[in-house]
Design a protein that fits this description.
With 98 residues, the protein is of the alpha/beta class. The chain has a single domain, classed as Rhodanese-like domain (Oxidized Rhodanese, domain 1, 3-Layer(aba) Sandwich). It is 36% helix and 20% strand. It has a five-stranded parallel sheet. The N and C termini lie far apart (28 Å). The mean pLDDT is 97.
């Protein structure tokens, strides 16, 4: 499973890079704080909403600590997606939030 650090994600966003971030946390968690512009697909709905994703795009999966996003990363990798897990999740995130 490929991984990316919160620091690298933050730096890439601050440099103006357009990243395809997917937050797999539940609605209540998203409402507390999330990375601006992130796509929200709860882990339990990922297999039902996979058609919303483009196989040609790279994705970065996000959750609270990295566990659920790790599961999502493994699932999407098995479906042929280019995907990385953001290690440490939102607990380690020091960038902007909404």
């Amino acid at each position: 499973m490929k991984e990316i650090s919160t620091i690298e994600v933050q730096q890439r966003l601050e440099n103006g890079e357009k990243l395809n971030l997917i937050d797999v946390r539940e609605v209540a968690e998203i409402q507390e704080a999330h990375i601006p512009g992130i796509i929200h697909i709860p882990l339990g709905l990922l297999e039902f909403r996979i058609q919303e994703l483009e196989i040609s795009k790279p994705y970065i999966m996000v959750c609270r600590s990295g566990g659920r996003s790790g599961q999502a990363t493994q699932y999407l990798e098995a479906q042929g997606f280019d995907v990385k897990n953001m290690t440490g999740g939102m607990l380690s995130w020091e960038g902007k939030v909404e």
